[in-house]
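Continuing the series of single-chain predictions for the mutant panel. This is the parent chain; the variants come on the following pages.
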Amino acid sequence: MAAAAAVEHEQVERPTCWCCGNTFDEQELSRLGSHTEVGVCEGCARWLARRARSSAEKGAHNPGAVMRRATLAARGRVMRAGLQDWPVLGPLLRRLNRHLP
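Parent structure:
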């Protein structure tokens, strides 16, 4: 009886994102192929993809790379100004951010 009670009260730990540290359900994390212990949430995966693309395009002068650098610069200015925390403008900017490269 005591063993059953111990199992009943045992807490199941939710997995955390290795990037931001927030907890998520397992299906909300992307696992790395060779390192399945590493899980990354959707937001961090998007951020990592932007960083990887930025590194790959260093010095490139094609129109796509130029636009992505301009978007990244604008994103930085918005973050420094704190506009993402404004009551009405913030949710709009966060929604737009999900669809930008």
